[in-house]
Design brief:
- InterPro entries: PHBA_efflux_AaeB/fusaric-R.
- It is a multi-pass membrane protein.
- It is found in: Cell membrane.
- Its main location: membrane.
- This is Putative membrane protein YccC.
- The chain is mainly α.
- It folds into three domains: 7-183 and 398-447 and 449-553, no CATH class; 185-389, Methane Monooxygenase Hydroxylase, Chain G, domain 1; 560-765, no CATH class.
- It has helices at residues 2-27, 29-52, 58-68, 73-101, 105-125, 128-148, 155-179, 185-208, 214-238, 243-278, 283-297, 313-344, 347-380, 401-425, 430-445, 450-475, 482-500, 506-520, 530-553, 560-579, 592-613, 617-645, 658-675, 679-705, 710-730, 738-744, 762-765, and strands at 304-305, 308-309.
- It has a two-stranded antiparallel ribbon with strand order 1-2.
- A hairpin with a 2-residue loop joins strand 1 and strand 2.
- Helix 15 (430-445) runs parallel beside helix 19 (530-553) and helix 20 runs antiparallel to helix 21 (592-613).
- The longest helix is centred in the middle third of the chain and has 36 residues, at 243-278.
- The chain is elongated, with a radius of gyration of 31 Å.
- Mean pLDDT is 84; it is low at 1-11 and 744-766.
Length: 766
């Protein structure tokens, strides 16, 4: 009986195991096979429709599918939209160029090369699929114009049919992506939001509890940078996908902005506490740490509900309410703690301790405020419409104008040289040589490693040429009808599509798929022309090899010059924070416009530098230190400028008051230090910041003696806190300025910059 019952009792677990294994496969490799099936189906549908309509080049419709198709529907719609826009712009420009220079091939090639260069520079300057729109504006001009220039009388009809073929490929991609087991970017966004919120809460809790080391902090913040940039790309794609995504787009943009603010505030607070712990032998450091640690222990429980960590947007409503109550009670509690310190500290220790305490509590309060806003926006995603949707600030990418211009000049040079070669040799496949060089330069310029991308595309094209020759001359003559054509093409296309799903082989797959369609894609009237085929294949490979050589020789992106320029741009964000106008956004307090540009620009530049770093861990860590220093100092500078702009009306707060003049000099010297860092400028920044702190403290003493209104005292205390934090950031032993600390006369072991022979009090507080 026991033996007979054993199989039946074991069968349910076995069945559940099979179901679980299938579910795991469906979430991983199953998605790859689904994407492969959808891409091939869309390509064959586009080919069939174009052939049925008897368009002259159905292969263009099939090629468009492989250019546009993405695993999620949102990117397909976004890419299709920008492809249509770029195609129409390129069409108009090329018709104008043909009308002007059809009889002058040299001028026609020169102006086309200039236009492609401008579009390539625009592609390098922009982000996401807006960049792709610029690529298509240049590539379409070459694709339509160069062949049409051989027959100017038929240029308009050729352009119209080419647009029709591209449109068929776009429609086929969109229809298949949206109908056949659609994968929505909105679902990916929801999981990303949930994962990022929970991971950030865990990071905050672990950091405040002292359970995280420096390497983990760097790795976590590097991941946050990639998340922020990738999240903005996904959000901009999801807008094209569904009404639900459009209804939440403003809140998602706000969520990204508030996450940047919260993570920056927390890192600044964590770094300040680390500096105080590093200087634990000083009285002010001990007092501040002991006073604030009870507050830190209160943060983690605010994100719990019924003993469980808050995960979903619906549950975040509870955490948001708890944070609001905590935030409302915090100022009174901090004032009580401060009064206790004033009563217990000796006069010699009071100034330094209170300045450290005020700086830390100001950062703590701002972090709680930013975290409350972030949690409230996350909670608002649980409903379709919400007042937090009305958000003006957006992620603002930052690129180097010189680097973008280099990409454009490089593309123009390559196209000009190959165009001159075509004119000089009258090569029958010269049109393919020139227009493919334009496409390769434009597509590869958006890659962090364009030389490798061009080389991989060249190898993929070589493989496509061999496979295409087998299909064109060995298979197509022996088949009849469209179904058999699909059977012959599907395996060959599947190989290339599979390569595009593997990041390491994406360049090979792209070159293979696009140019297999170009070489072996059948037309309505198939021509048996081996010599023409070989010429076309050779022209395609040569154009890609020349493009790869141009990327490797003409100011290659991987060289130190670009890294140094991007690093200078990253430091320049702090300069911008000190000097740029405080742009105010409607309905948002303070200089939110400047802060938003500063935050998003610094992270975008960091993302680009990470991509260029490759395996150079030393450069990556150095870049992270510069990002931390830039974000800390830049945010403190913006906070200080906001406080100065909101000071009460009183003669002591006049812009020409000595302490205001000293503060302006401090901001100016800090900006000069980030502009061109060296020991002399570092010493000057420390000196002027010290002078500004001393001058502000003198005014604060006058305010206290006169028993002036509390608003004046609090405003001065906040200004002092921001100045003090800037100074501690400049002498942080873990910052890029640590090398200058000795030359500046500051002791990195003390957050005040105090040397061992300094006395307590004003010197320490400054």
């Amino acid at each position: 009986m026991q033996a007979s019952s054993s199989p039946s009792s074991a069968s349910p677990p076995q069945g559940q195991g099979v179901i679980k294994a299938f579910a795991d496969w469906a979430r991983t490799d199953g998605l790859v096979w689904l994407y492969l099936f959808k891409t091939i189906a869309a390509a064959l549908i586009a080919l069939g429709v174009a052939m049925k309509l008897e368009l002259p080049s159905p292969r263009t419709a099939m090629t468009t599918v492989f250019i546009v198709m993405q695993p999620q529907s949102g990117p397909v719609f976004a890419k299709s939209f920008y492809r249509i826009c770029g195609t129409l712009v390129g069409l108009v420009v090329m018709l104008a160029l043909i009308g002007l220079f059809a009889q002058q091939p040299e001028l026609f090639i020169a102006t086309t090369a200039m236009w492609v260069g401008v579009c390539t520079a625009g592609a390098a300057r922009n982000r996401n699929f807006r960049s792709y729109g610029f690529v298509l504006a240049g590539y379409t001009a070459a694709l339509i114009g160069i062949p049409a220039s051989q027959n100017p009388d038929g240029a308009f009809m050729s352009a119209m049919t080419r647009v029709a073929e591209i449109s068929i490929g776009i429609l086929a991609s969109g229809a298949v992506s949206a109908i056949v087991f659609p994968q929505y970017t909105g679902e990916l966004l929801r999981s990303t939001v949930r994962r990022r919120f929970s991971s950030f809460v865990d990071y905050v809790s672990a950091s405040l509890a002292g359970r995280i080391d420096r390497s983990q902090i760097e790795a976590t913040n590097a991941r946050f940078v990639a998340d922020i940039v990738g999240f903005e790309a996904s959000r901009s794609n999801a807008v094209f996908e569904s009404p639900d995504s459009r209804m939440r787009s403003g809140r998602l943009a706000r969520l990204n902005t508030e996450f940047m603010a919260a993570s920056t505030r927390f890192h600044a607070l964590h770094q300040l506490m680390n500096r105080l712990r590093h200087a634990g032998s000083t009285v002010s450091a001990k007092v501040t740490i002991e006073a604030l640690e009870p507050y830190f222990r209160e943060i983690a429980p605010l994100f719990d509900k019924a003993g469980e960590r808050v995960m979903s947007a619906a549950d975040a409503t509870h955490a948001s309410a708890q944070l609001s109550q905590y935030r409302a009670a915090l100022p009174a509690r901090v004032r009580a703690t401060r009064d206790q310190l004033v009563a217990t500290l000796a006069n010699a220790e009071k100034a330094a301790s209170l300045l450290d305490f005020d700086t830390a509590t100001e950062l703590f309060y701002r972090f709680v405020h930013e975290m409350n806003e972030y949690t409230a926006t996350y909670a608002s995603l649980a409903v379709d419409t919400h007042s937090r949707e009305k958000w003006i600030a957006r992620y603002v990418p930052k690129t180097n104008l010189f680097a973008a211009s280099v990409h454009g000049v490089r593309a123009a040079i390559v196209m000009g040289l190959l165009g001159a070669f075509w004119i000089a040799t009258a090569w029958p496949s010269g049109t393919n040589l020139v227009l493919n060089a334009a496409a390769t330069c434009a597509l590869a310029s958006a890659s962090p490693a364009p030389t490798r991308m061009s080389s991989q595309m060249a190898v993929g094209t070589m493989i496509a040429a061999i496979v295409g020759m087998i299909l064109t001359f060995g298979v197509f003559p022996h088949i009849d009808g469209f179904p058999m054509l699909c059977v012959a093409l599907a395996p060959a296309l599947a190989f290339g599509t599979f390569l595009t799903t593997r990041p390491a082989y994406a360049g090979y797959g792209m070159g293979y798929c696009i140019f297999l369609c170009f070489l072996a894609g059948p037309d309505n009237v198939v021509q048996y022309n081996p010599s023409g085929y070989i010429n076309d294949a050779f022209a395609l490979v040569v154009s890609q090899i020349v493009s790869a050589a141009a990327f490797a020789v003409l100011l290659p992106p991987s060289t130190p010059w670009l890294r140094n320029r991007l690093l200078a741009n990253l430091r320049g964000q702090a300069v911008h924070a000190c000097r740029a106008r405080l742009q105010k956004l409607p309905g948002i307090a303070g200089g939110a416009g400047l802060r938003n540009r500063f935050e998003s620009g610094a992270r975008d530049l960091m993302f680009q530098l990470n991509a260029l770093a490759g395996k150079d861990e030393t450069f990556r860590q150095d870049t992270l230190r510069w990002m931390f220093s830039t974000l800390e100092t830049g945010n403190a500078a913006i906070d200080l400028r906001e406080e100065l702009s909101a000071l009460p009306v009183h003669p002591r707060f006049d812009t020409h008051a000595p302490w205001r003049t000293q503060t302006a000099a401090a901001l100016k010297s800090v900006a000069a230090l980030f502009e061109r860092p060296d020991a002399r400028r570092h010493a000057a920044a420390l000196l002027t910041t010290t002078a500004a702190i001393g001058a502000a403290q003198a005014v604060l003493e006058d305010v206290l003696r006169e028993d002036a209104p509390r608003e004046q005292r609090h405003a001065l205390q906040r200004c002092l806190s921001h100045l003090h934090f800037i100074r501690t950031a400049l002498i942080d032993p873990q910052s890029p300025f640590a090398a200058y600390a000795g030359a500046s006369g500051a002791d990195a072991n003390h957050p005040s910059g105090k040397r061992p022979d300094d006395t307590q009090g004003a010197n320490h507080a400054s």
